[in-house]
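Help wanted!
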Amino acid sequence: MRNTRRSLTRESAPETVRAPFRAKRRLLESAAMASLLESGRTHTCQQLRRDHVDERVTLFGWVHRRRDHGGRIFVDLRDREGITQVVFGPDIHQDTHAQAESLRSEFCIGIAGKVVDRGDNENPNMETGGIEVEVDALEIFSASDTPPFTISDDDRLETNENVRLRYRYLDLRRPSFQRNFATRARISYITRRTLADLGFYELETPYMVKYTPGGARNFLVPSRLHPGSFYALAESPQIYKQLFMVAGFDKYFQITRCFRDEDLRNDRQPEFTQIDVELSFATPERVFGPMEQLMGALWSEILGTELPRPFPRLSWQEAMDRFGSDKPDMRFGLELHDATAASRDCGFRVFDGAPCVKGLCVPPDQAGGLGRNQLDKLTDFVKKRENGAAKGLAWVRVAKDGSWEAPFAKNVKPEAKAAITEAMGAEPGSLMLFIADEWETVHTVLCALRLHLRDRFELVPPGAQWRFLWVTDFPLFEQNDKGQWVSSHHPFTSPRPEHVDLMLSDPGVVRAQAYDLVLNGNEIGGGSIRIHRSDVQAKVFTALGLSDEDARAKFGFLLDAFRYGPPPHGGIALGLDRIAMLICGAESLRDVIAFPKTQRGQDLMTGCPTPADDPQLEELYIRHRPLPGGEGTGESGAG
RNA sequence: GGGGCGGUAGUUAAGUUGGUUAUAACGCCGGCCUGUCACGCCGGAGGUCGCGGGUUCGAGCCCCGUCCGCCCCGCCA
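Answered by r_m:
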C-alpha cells in the first residue's frame, strides 16, 4: 500500500520511453554481474587514500547520494566502514556512464575502476576526500524504492521515531548506527576475551524456566505438552548460576538475554542483555577486581581512556545521605545538607513538623540565575515527583549580611537561621532549597532536584568524564506498601556476618553484602555475595514471612542443592546495553539495540505482539477473557 | 494506573478569530548541465490534516472519545 504511488511515478512514464535502452542495459548488467561479484571487492569504502592512486579497485556498497551533472555523475558510495566518491563519465567509460543514469538512492551496487587523485577538488570533510574512483564497470546488485527517509546522521533530516522503527533496517544503515553496533560487537568480544583469560567459563542457562514469584513480572510461555502449565522467560539466570557454583565450575560468565514484563523507559527494554558473572570462594573484593579489570579493558581499548583503579566505594547509607540516591552522579557536587537538627523548634511549622529537613545549597554564581519565576517552576517540579509526595519546596536566599530573603523568613527564629545557614554550608548570595518531609521523600525528591539543576546549569564540566563507583552495603530488606519485609535484592543475598542475628529483631538495619556498579548516575551492574549456609537462609525466609513449606515449594531444588557442600559464592550482573549506550554516547537504549520495542512493548516493524490464532490457542488449552474495552475478539494489534 | 509533549504531502515543518483552491523546504518524476560533494537551473506530480463522533451555514483549527510515538512518576535492579 505505502509504496504504490511512488513506484507508479517512477516506473510508468519512463518505462515506455526507455524500453529499448533498458533491455540493452540489462545485458550489460548481467555481463558485469558475473565478473564483479565473482572477483570480490578489493577495498572497503573507508580505505582508499592518495597512496592508492592508479590502483584498480572494486568497491561494493549503497548509493548514499548521487549528483548528476550530465557529463559527470558523482556517487557517494557507502558501506559499513565509510564513504568513497566514485565518478562516471562518457570519457571514462561510455556505456557505464549511461548505465549510471539509472542509479538512485540506496541502490546496492558494485563498481570497479581506477583510483585518481582529486587534486584541488579534494573534499576535506571526507576521510577519503583526497581521491575518487573513475568507474569503468558498474554492477547493480539491486534497485531500491525511494526510502521513506534519508539515510543520514544530519539533524536537519531527523525523522519521527515511529517511522524510523517501522523501517528499522533502513535506520540501521545510518553511519551512527553502524558505528554503535561495531562498538557493541567490540564490547562483547573484549568481555569474552577478558573474562575467559581470567579463567571464567562461558556457560549457558535456560531461557524457559520455572516461574519464581517476587521481583519483576515474568513473561509466561504456555506448555503444549503440559496443558495449563507455563514456563517463565528468565528474568535473569540467577538461580542457575548459583547451581553452577554448586556444580563446581568455580568461575562462570555469560552474555545473556533477560526478560522482564515491566513498563519501559528510555533505559529499560523488556528484553535486554546482561554480562552475568558468578564465582566461588567470593568476597565482594574478589568480584570487584575482575569487573574493574573488564571495565578498564573496555574503556582503554574502545575509548583510549585509562580508568583509575580501584574504583571508589561508597556505602549505600553515605550515598543516600550525601546524594539522595543509590546511584549518584559523582561528576559534580551540589551535595545534600542535613538541616534537621539545626531546624528543630525553629518556629517555621513546615520544618518543625517534619521528621527530616534537608536541602541543596546553590552557590552564589548560579543562584543569580534563579529568579522568582524559576523558583516557582522548581516548586512545580518537585511537587510532581514521586506521584506528588513532596508538598513543596522551601527556598531561602542568603543576603550579603547573612540575613534571609524567603517567604517564610519572619517565621524563623534568628538563632535557628544562623544554625541552618551554617548546616547548609551557605554563604552570602547562596540559594538554599529545602525539602521537609519523610526521610524517603526528602531524599528521592532532592536527588531528582539535584539532577535537574545539573542539566539546568550544565554542572558537569565538558569533556568525557567517567566516574565509576561501587555502592556497597545495601539494606538486606525493605518494606513494601503493605508494611511487609521483602528482599531488596533477592532472597539469596547474604547479610553482613555481624548482622545475621539482627534479621528477626531489627530487619531494617541489616545490611547486605550487596553492591551496585554505578557510572555517572547510571546503575550499570549489581550483585551480591550469596547465602551458602542453610541456617542463615532459613532465618532470611523467616524474616520474609516464608514458611518452610512455602520456601520448599518455591526454591526446593535450590535448597536441596545447597545440602551438598555449596561453596561460598557471589557474583554480579552488568547491563551490557547500558554500558554500550554510555560508551557510544547514545541517549537511548534504542540506539544500541538493533530491534527495540516501543514504550508500549511493540515492535513496529513486525507489528508484534499479535493476537494468537484460535487453533494455536486450542492446542495450548488457552482461552482468554474478554479484553478490556473490547468484545473478546483478540482485536488488539497495531492499527 | 497517572502527568507532560507530539501526530498536516514520502520526510520535516507552517497554518492567524473557525471562512473561498491547505503552504514551504527537502525528497520524488521529467528536462538541461563535465567538478559536484546538502551540486545547480527549469518544469511537474504528490493530501483520508492519526481515527471516530459532535458543535457550526462552514472544522486542520472548537468540544468529546479513541489509537500511535516520545519523556517522566508509579512499577522495575
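OP: Thanks! One thing I noticed: DSSP finds 17 helices and 23 strands in chain A.
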